[in-house]
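User: Can you predict the 3D structure for this chain?
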Amino acid sequence: MKVAIQFVNMPTSEAMETYTIGKLENLAKKYDAIINANVFFKQENSPKKLGKICEMELSLAGPRIFASSNEKNYELAVKHTISDLEKQLKKRKGVLKPYL
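Assistant: Here is the predicted structure, written as structure tokens:
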């Protein structure tokens, strides 16, 4: 699995890259159909103390899977985004399984 991480309008962070790649590798162990992962970190000014946005797009057989979350820090955003992606992958695996 190839991982591309982009930090939009903010400085890059080695710690966030390492954390995100670790989470994605755990996901790839469960679902071996993942080919490519694009990750975008964005920062937004928000009055609700949120504004740390993580967007992930996974490429696999069939349509791409996308998830995004807006949290108070990037670690929570990555965790929630991975959780959303896992739900979508589980659903897709359930749909594809009878036909394999």
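The chain has a mean pLDDT of 89. The helical segments are 14-30, 74-96.
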